[in-house]
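Entry 12.
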Amino acid sequence: MLKRTAKLLPLILALLAVLPQLVWAAGGGASELVVVADTRVVKNVVLHYFADVYNMNLMLNAVWAVVLTALYGSFLGFFMDFLISRTGLDLTKRSIVEH
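Predicted 3D structure (tokens):
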């Protein structure tokens, strides 16, 4: 009994994975779906600017995302280097010991 169940388990799991595609209760897919940021409730000026940029110019939004990610990564790198140097660890003079 257990061996038969173990052989049928992959088939049952595959059927469960395909089952949502077999049920067409929702109808066809959305043809024109527009995703926008809701700026009606945003009170912060900076967040409102970025929401407007996202809504109006996706290329400028991508440029901002790249620039801010690079700045944030640089800040975290320098900050962690500062914290580690304050603890007394000197990572600039590393000697690799081969055994």
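Annotation: Helices lie at 2-22, 45-56, 58-86. Residues 58-86 form the longest helix (29 residues).
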